[in-house]
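tokens incoming
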């Protein structure tokens, strides 16, 4: 069947530009995460500052809904290009400061905050543009392939970032980061500019606040969307912080390896996630069910508990690889189910509100930074897993008629 074709989304011209643009953007994101996370941990020796650095990258969560509304009103491509131009400028700034020997951990935290004001919105525009430009029958394939590009970027970004940083230092590593950001910006210029506000539904002049409230009302009155958004917040609060912010700590303090070892761990998770994304992209509508989504979310929590018990780099790598597979299958199916439920005129608004769920990540990260100092790494992870499993089951029970 056509919707099972692994590359059917590439028939859309805009997607042929967006896919490599998103790949390059995520590649740079992952290189920055590895390079700057390790830099802060080594320079300060503080797990609290490490988790603060990771948390700052999600501070734009509160801005994301407004940028989603702005994309609905003036065109998503315009907002998308502006954000990626800013990412390029910030990377060039870090590169310049590093070569001038003016870079410090606190300067990095400030620049991480500036970048973090926009990073969550990058995902808003990616998903909304795919929903606008790709036919419904190809949507699962497009979202699966887009997730595959993100996961492939994590693999190559982790290995490249760690390798260049270890051999040449932060300045030369950022030459590559800035160059890849510029490539991403150039490719983004080729994406089709969609402007849903031109439709009859949106002809009247409305304020951004009214648009935002319409998005909230739509969510509140659509039980399946509401349930998925609660689940998205929960996994961001209790699962993502472990894999998005604490791997430098695990590599250095638990496995006693250097930045190269950290790169291997991140690449292991990314490789597993890439396989999971490819499964969803190839399987098409067979992965659209909420049962499939929930099963993989529960398996993700189980693998987090296994990972926390590992004491060597090899065993940690294997558990991260398996975790990546179930994580990707759960999150891609969640995205497909959500986007397929939304009308085009309100898609940007609702996905913008969905990005508010990412605010769980900085909250969860700050909690881990405190708890690790008090009860240790494994106990902290097990506590987060217990909360996540219990509340996921509660979400399923409350909305079981629509899930």
């Amino acid at each position: 069947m056509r919707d099972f074709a692994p590359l059917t989304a590439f028939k859309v011209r805009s997607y042929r530009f967006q896919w490599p643009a998103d790949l390059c953007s995520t590649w740079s994101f992952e290189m920055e995460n590895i390079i700057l996370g390790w830099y802060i941990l080594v320079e300060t020796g503080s797990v609290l500052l490490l988790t603060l650095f990771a948390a700052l990258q999600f501070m734009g969560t509160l801005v994301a809904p407004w940028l989603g509304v702005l994309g609905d009103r003036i065109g998503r491509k315009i907002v998308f290009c502006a954000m990626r131009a800013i990412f390029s400028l910030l990377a060039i700034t870090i590169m310049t400061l590093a070569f001038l020997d003016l870079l410090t951990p606190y300067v990095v935290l400030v620049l991480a905050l500036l970048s973090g004001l926009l990073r969550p919105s990058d995902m808003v525009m990616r998903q909304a543009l795919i929903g606008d430009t790709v036919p419904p029958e190809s949507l699962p394939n497009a979202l699966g392939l887009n997730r595959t590009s993100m996961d492939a970027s994590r693999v190559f970004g982790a290995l490249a970032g760690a390798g260049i940083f270890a051999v040449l230092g932060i300045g030369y590593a950022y030459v590559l980061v800035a160059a890849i950001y510029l490539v991403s910006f150039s490719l983004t210029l080729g994406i089709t500019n969609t402007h849903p506000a031109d439709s009859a539904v949106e002809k009247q002049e409305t304020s951004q606040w009214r648009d935002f409230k319409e998005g909230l009302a739509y969510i509140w009155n659509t039980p399946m969307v509401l349930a998925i958004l609660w689940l998205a917040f929960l996994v961001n609060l209790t699962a993502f912080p472990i894999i998005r912010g604490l791997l430098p700590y695990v590599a250095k303090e638990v496995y006693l390896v250097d930045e190269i070892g950290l790169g291997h761990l991140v690449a292991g998770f990314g490789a597993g996630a890439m396989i999971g994304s490819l499964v969803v992209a190839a399987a098409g509508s067979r992965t659209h069910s909420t049962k499939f989504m929930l099963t993989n979310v529960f398996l993700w929590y189980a693998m987090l508990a296994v990972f926390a018990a590992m004491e060597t780099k090899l065993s940690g790598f294997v558990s991260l690889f398996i975790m990546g597979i179930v994580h990707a299958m759960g999150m891609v199916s969640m995205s497909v189910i959500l986007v397929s439920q939304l009308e085009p005129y309100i898609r940007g608004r609702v996905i913008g509100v969905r990005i508010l769920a990412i605010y769980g990540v900085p909250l969860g990260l700050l909690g881990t930074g405190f708890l690790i100092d008090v009860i240790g790494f494994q106990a902290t992870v097990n506590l987060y897993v217990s909360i996540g499993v219990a509340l996921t089951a509660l979400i399923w029970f409350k909305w079981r008629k629509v899930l």
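note: The longest helix spans residues 13-44.
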